[in-house]
Task: structure prediction
Amino acid sequence: MAGIPTGVLEVRHLVKEYKSFRAVDDLSFTIHPGEIVGLLGPNGAGKTTALRCMAGILRPTSGQVLINGHDLLQDQARAKSGLAFVPELPSLYELLTVEEHMKFVAMCFDTLDVYDALLEPLLKRYNLLDKRNQLVATLSKGMKQKLAIACALVHRANVFMFDEPIIGIDPAGVVEVKDEFRRAKDGGAAVLVSTHLLDTAEKLCDRVIILAKGRKIAEGTLAQLQSQFGMEGRSLEDVFLELTDEPRQAAPVFDI
Ligand code: ATP
Result:
């Protein structure tokens, strides 16, 4: 991703209501160039809804999303030109081949000039070389997830949003995806990753944002959260469970 300008994502007072239910409630934050930020929260906290608003898939009830300074609602084409979003359940064009799909995305983002150079390495990295001429419909769930990630990398994005990117991907793929985040970070991209994997978030993310019931309840590095909430030396999992009041799972008892 060398040569691509650095990315910035700014979210200001984002609200999303489904009828009278407020799924995202006054969410504000900024992701700076070269940062990987984890978006954490219990089931139903509003992570996917917030990401879908930030990716321009859902229209927010109010608030503003700026991608590299371009307002997502006012200047959608320019805002989206810098954005790569990988949803939890990617909707791909099943009747294109893997290679056709990659090319289609490159055409949409006007990046055919770099497509030839990127195609082979990406297919190799995501173990899709031998599937390149197969229809997307014939791929396994994990392969589809890998293709969605590879497609996100064939355009000149510098703001990346991933919704649960690691679930369903095999261990080698997980290593690749984590390396991808680090490469994006090193190239100056702004990376937002929603995940329930708190160990991974602790190792991978520079900062985390914790949502509960649509509201941001905490934001910062692990050290900042430990100090703010008097939990020095505790893991991200401990801090998360304390803040979200998630009951701890009792160890399973096997009656044999
Ligand atoms: P998970 O970790 O389970 O994926 P999440 O944090 O991504 O959860 P969302 O999927 O954003 O949560 O859902 C937030 C809230 O909004 C939930 O209470 C959910 O039921 C509600 N919600 C989501 N989509 C809709 C919809 N289309 N209509 C009504 N309510 C919705």
Observations:
- The mean pLDDT is 91.
